[in-house]
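3.2 Worked example (two chains)
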Amino acid sequence: MEKLPIFLSVVTVVRNDRDQVREIAAGLCEALGRLVSDYEVVIIDNASQDGSLEAYRDLVSGSGLPNLQVYALTKEVDLDTAYSVGLENALGDFIAFIDPMTDDVGFLPSMLEEAVGGADVVFAANDQKPEQGFLYRCVSRSFNWLYARLNDVDLERDAPQFRVLSRRVANFILQHPLPSITFRHLPATGGFSRANLRYSAPPKGARSKRLMESVDRGVRLLVTTTRAPMRLVTWLSFFGAMANVVYSIYVLGIALFKEDVAPGWVTLSLQQSGMFLLVCVVLLVLGEYILHMANLTSEGPRYHVGQEFTSTTMTRREKLNVEEARKSPYLVPPA
């Protein structure tokens, strides 16, 4: 197979993999060396505590592997944040994000074929998933269902972690104020041309996923990418305000048209409905203000040119602001 004439960056995240990091890096370098003309492997160490730094020093030494970039984080972060670190430091024309334990590097040529053919984003989903706990699977499916209903994107099916991004998509994500959040969903929702591929390969292993960390990550993604939760708060506040107005009218009607009303009931009811009305109005105003501020802080660039097309023939280029010197009887030839 002829090498693709591109510069490819491959980003992978590891943690406490001192005994396997050389095998991982060597496998990537060997596969990429046969696939593309130029490449780099960007390793993000997610705050390992097993002495992996010594292994990295050996990997990048003169007797180590070529084209490696290692970035060791000082504290553990979620997976999307770690990948965004690699995105910020990758230099390739195309950037692939791979988990060597669950993703098949051998499927990368098919993904690059789509990317070189014009797809800005190429996703690849493995039909064989690593085993996770029952509770984790239930929570994950519930979150994917909810997110698909709110944003019309099934993250597990339409935006898996195994992906190849073009440089224009990488630049677009990095222009956003929260690249660690938008990395997960923006390639699937930003209007770029994309391809979704599927393959079947047994995973080499399974990284344990912590339920509470995944829940926190999901809630953060849900709140920052859709206004539905906060919009629900404002609608409930509006409904509460209207319900208290109706109740106040009902209390006044009872006071006007009924004679056997308990003493103090009308005053107490109006006082309570008035206080609840005030609380609901305050929550409504605060909710709308928070929505506005969230839009300002999470808003990306005003626009982004995804693709540009130019005619082969441009007539304006034929009308340059240059005039030919014409012979004139008033011009005196040089001596």
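3.2.1 Second chain
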Amino acid sequence: MTDASGFPAPTTPCASRAGVLVGYLDYFRTQLLAKVSALSPAEQSRSLVPLGWSPLELVRHLTYVERRWLVWGFEGQDVGDPWGDERDGRWYVGDRDAKQVLEDFQAQAAVTNQVVACHDLDEVGAPGPRWDGAPPATLERVLLHLVQEHARHLGHLDVVVELAGGPTGE
């Protein structure tokens, strides 16, 4: 389902709509990990943008985004602190080192993919606090949100990596 660059090709057949969405998520995750891993440890932890986030904080944020939407939201499971990626209105890594942050991201990606494998795209999520009183979304809508969130943040990261002198593009 990918072209020569690894990007999910829209003309390549895929077995399911879920496979298409997970294919895009996996591609964006792979690109994100490659870009952050290509940076020096100092650049991984340094902010180069006015908002003040570092590449590792962005990765941690996306880890929690997936956890909030799929595990806490869609499945309705207790995840402890669903907003553990934020402190005082900013993204936050805490005492996690780069290796742990990247491993956490990969582990959450595996959990997300497993949730998708166990449910139908038309299935509605469990009622709970994630929805702020609104009716729960379908799995398909949650995945579309995750795809846009990852794509948008990968674009942000591409700018930061370019400013840091790292690799850009796909």
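3.3 Remarks
DSSP finds five helices and two strands in the chain.
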